[in-house]
Every structure is written in C-alpha cells, then in structure tokens.
Design a protein that fits this description.
Elements (H helix, E strand, L loop, with lengths): L2 E6 L6 H11 L4 E7 L1 H8 L7 H9 L6 E5 L4 H8 L4 E5 L15 E5 L7 H12 L1
Parallel strand pairs: 1-2, 1-4, 2-3, 4-5
Bound molecules: [cytidine-5'-phosphate] glycerylphosphoric acid ester.
Length: 133
C-alpha cells in the first residue's frame, strides 16, 4: 500500500484544496493530511483561521480522498512523520517548490503539484469583506 502525506492549514476548505487532495491521493492508496493546529498557524504562520482545528479536521475527514488527519504542530515534525507513518510520497502545492527536498534523504518521493489558480482562503475572505460593505 503506497502511503502519501501532505501538510497544510486548509481553512475555509475550497476547490483548490480539493484539487490538491484528489491529485495527492491519485499518487498512492492512502492519504494522510497533517493539519496545522491553531497554535502552529498563529505562532509559525501568523494565520488566524476562521475555522478551529477540530472544525477543519471534521471537514477534511468528510473528503473522500482523505484517509487520516493528524496534527501539524511544528516545522520539524516532517522528518519523523515520514518514518512514523511509513510514508512513500510527500506532496505539497508548488508554492512550496524546493522547500522540502531534504525529505528525499529520508527515502521519500517529494512531489510539488501545481496550485489551482485564482482561489485562496485569503481571496475568499477579501471577497466576503467587500460584498458585506
Ligand atoms: N493549494 C493549492 N491551490 C490553491 C490553494 C492551496 O494547491 N489555490 C494547496 C497549497 O499549495 C498547499 C495546500 O493546498 O499544498 C494547503 O494550502 P494551505 O492551507 O494554504 O497550506 P499552507 O498554509 O501552505 O501550509 O508545513 C506546510 C504548511 O503547513 C503548509
């Protein structure tokens, strides 16, 4: 069984996220999503989410491509995650291209997939703000 993992915030889950999850799952048989916790988002990415970790987790668990959701609590956990979860392939959108190539040293295939254009959580928030004025 080929095991794939990807990491992210996945706030205001949208079709760009789903496009990524669908393509990530197509690279194997089992997809794990390491979901950024609220603390990690704020302390490390200065992101304030609309949905809490538990809400974002329940949304991801409802997506047919996702087999398991685990917490992402630090930048450093990726290396050990590859071994703990017996990962074959690590996947991220290509806005991260090159940033995680070091995981190849753990015997993991590293794949960067093209981002879906024109959609982002930030864009959704901005659009909502303008329509509400
Ligand atoms: N994504 C995409 N297309 C979009 C928006 C997002 O393909 N239009 C992808 C991103 O490239 C990422 C995933 O969806 O691979 C999740 O996006 P975010 O929630 O923005 O994740 P990010 O904040 O980039 O966190 O340790 C890695 C970080 O946790 C990644």
């Amino acid at each position: 069984m080929k095991r794939v993992i990807t990491y992210g915030t996945f706030d205001l889950l949208h079709y760009g996220h789903i496009n990524l999850l669908r393509r990530a799952k197509a690279l194997g048989d089992y997809l794990i999503v390491a979901l950024s916790t609220d603390d990690f988002n704020w302390l490390e990415k200065q992101k304030k989410c609309c949905f809490s970790y538990e809400q974002r987790k329940s949304l991801l668990e409802a997506v047919r491509y996702v087999d398991l959701v685990i917490p992402e609590e630090s930048w450093e956990q990726k290396k050990s995650d590859m071994h703990e979860y017996h990962i074959d392939t690590f996947v991220m959108g290509d806005d991260w291209r090159g940033k995680f190539d070091f995981l190849r040293d753990e015997g993991v295939e590293v794949v960067y997939l093209e981002r879906t254009p024109e959609i982002s959580t930030t864009q959704i928030k901005q659009d909502l703000n303008t329509t509400q004025k």
